[in-house]
Write the C-alpha cells for this entry.
Amino acid sequence: MKTDTEDKQRIRTICRSCGHGGCGIYAVVEDGKVTKIQPDKEHPVSKGYTCKKAHGFLDMQYHPDRLLYPKKRVGARGEGKWERISWDEALTTLADKMNQFKAESGAESVVMGHGTGRDFHRFVYRVSNLFGTPNVLTPGHMCYLPRIAISKLMGMEIPMVDYDSRPKCVISWGANHLISNPDENKGINLAQTLRDGAKHIVIDPRRTKLVDRADLWLQLRPATDSALAMGMMKVIVDEELYDKDFIEKYTTGFDKFVERLQEFPLERVEKITWVPKEKIIEAARIYATTKPAALQWGVGIEQNINCVDADRALIYLVAMTGNLDVPGGNVIFGLPPGLTRAEFSLFNKLPAEQKDKLLGGDKYKLGATINRITPHVVWDAIENADPYQVRAMVVFASNSLNARENSKRVYDILKNKLEFFAAIDVFPTPTTELADLVLPAATWLENDNIADYWKVHGFVFPRNLVVEPEGEARSDHMILNELGRKLGFEEYFWEDYNDSLDHILEPIGLNWEKFKDMPYLQTEPKYRKYEIEGFASDSGKLDFYLHKYEEWGYDPMPSYVEPPESPEREAEFVEKYPLILITGQRIFNYFGSEHRQSAYLRKSHPDPLVEIHSETASQRGIKEGDWVSIESPRGKVKFRAKLFDGIDKRVVSAEFGWWFPEKDRTDADEQLASNINVLTDDAGPLDPGMGATNLKGLMCQIEKLAS
C-alpha cells in the first residue's frame, strides 16, 4: 500500500532487517530513495514495534560496499581478483556448471544452501528438487528445524504461544525475547502480557533483562535443559498436577514416560543443572497450576547433543499441564485456509532414488523426514567422497565461513577442496571472497513477496517493493526463478517472477495485485482441535513413547546426555579448559554476521564481546574492555571482556557472527580472529536425530592479551 504526498511516498511493507523478520513498517521514499523507517501500528504481530536493525538498514541500503554486479573470479581463490560479467553470462555459467556436474557425477554432487529465513526458501527447494539434488545446507540442524521435525513426528505443527489470548503465566526458556524477537512472536507481545500481570518464569544461564521482570529465575548450566524439563515434569507427576483427562483420552505411552521420570530425582537434576531443587519445585507448581500458561523457548536449547530431547520434553510439559492448543497456551495455528507450502517446493518431483542419497539421511533420520542435513556430512563428502563426491555448492544469503561450526575446516574446504562455489549475497563477505562466481542480491526493500509464508503463526503479509534495486542487483527469488529456467525447467518457472506470487494465491481466489494492498491474511484460531481431529501420528494421539524413534535406533523417550566437553571430563582436561562457553547469544544491533557495515549500529557496539564474571576476570587480571583470548581444543580467538555478574563464575558467553568489513576480506587471519566458530566443533557426538552441534556447553580458557 502506498500513501503519496507531493514530495514523498509512504509505502507499507514488512521489515526483513533480521533473518526472521516479519515486523510491519512504513518506508518513506523521497526522490527515489528510502529516507525513513516508521512502525506500522496496525500490524497484528509487531503492533507498532521496530528495532535498531530496521533503522540501521538505511546505512546498508545505500552502502558503497554493496554487491551491485555479477562477477567471476580471476586467479586463485581468496586473492580478491574479479572480473565483472553480465547476468546472462553469470546464470549461463552457473547452469552449465551444475548440469556438467550432474551429467558426470549425479545431481547429488551439487549442494545448494541458504542462510536463515528470507522468504525465498521455497524457490531454493523448487530448483533443487527439479534439478535432482536432495542436498540443501541450512543452519536449521541446530536452529528451529529440530522442533519443526519432532513436532511433525508427534503429529502436529509447532505449538506457538497464543499471546493475543493473554496467558496468565509465561515461561521464557532460553529466549531473550525482548532482544531476539524471533520468528512468529515479537517481544512486544510478551511485554504486553507481563504488563497485564502474568506470572513470569525465566530459565536462562544469563541474567537477561527479562529476569528483572520475572517472578522466578532458574539459572541453569548451559546444555542441561532436557534434564531440567524432566525434573519439572517429575514434580508435576508426583504431585498429580497434570491434566488427567487429557492424558487419558488423547495420549499413549504416558505410563512408560512416568517410569522414565523416575530416573530424574531432584537431587540428580540439581547436580546436573545447578538449579536448586526448591526452585525446580516452585517453577513446576507455578506453571502447572496457573491457567492458561504458555512456554516460549529459544534456539539455544537446540544447540547441543540434547537438542531434540529438550524440544520434545518441552512439548510434553505443555501438553501434560493442559496448555496445548488452548486459548492463552501454546496453540497450533497453521497457514490461512487454501495456502500450502509443500506444493510450491515440488518435493514430489525429487525421485525416490535421489531422496535416498540425502547426505547423512541414514544417520540423522529425524532430519531426513524434513529433508535437512547437518554441515559436517557435506564437508565429509567434499573431503573424503564419503559417501560420494560433492563437487559444487551454490549458496544464497549465507556467510558460511562465519555461520558454520569449525570455521577453520570450512575455510580450508571452500578455498582448497571444493571444485566450484557460487555465492549470492547483498555484500561481499569473507565467504564470497572464496567463491568462483558471485551474484548480487537485492535487499528486502527492492522486491515484492509474500512474507511469513513459511511460518506457522497463522498470518501471511504482502511485502511490497519500496525502491528499485541498486545497480544490477536482483532478488534471490528472481535469480532462482531464472536459474531454474536456465537449467532446462522452463515449464515450472515464470517469465515474470511476480507470476509466481499469483500461483501461490490462486487457490484462495487472489492475485498479487489484489493482495499487495491488503493488510494480511489470517487463520482464525481454533482451539483443542485434537478433540475432533486427533493428532497426525501413527496412533492418532500424542505419543509419549515414540515408536518411530525406537525403530530408528534412538531413545523413544527424552533423556539427558552429558555434553562431550563438560566439567565432568577428566581432571587434566578441565584444568586446561575450566570454563563453560556459551556461543551465540543474541546481539540487539546485529543478526548473525549481518549489519557490521552499518555505522549507526557499529557505533554503539563496535567490538566482539565476551561476558565474564568479575571474580573470574579478577583471577586472571582482566578488566572491563581488555582484549582477551578465548581458547578451546580447536584454537584461539580474540574478544573484548565485558564484566558481567549476571553469569555464573564457571561460565562465559561470547558473541556470534563477528567479522570486520573494514579490514581485508581476503586475509583469513584477520577475518577469523574473532569468529567464535573457530572454537566450535562439527565432530561427534551430535544429537542423534538431527545432528545438532554443541554450540552451548563447550569448555574453554580465557586469558588477558598483552596490550
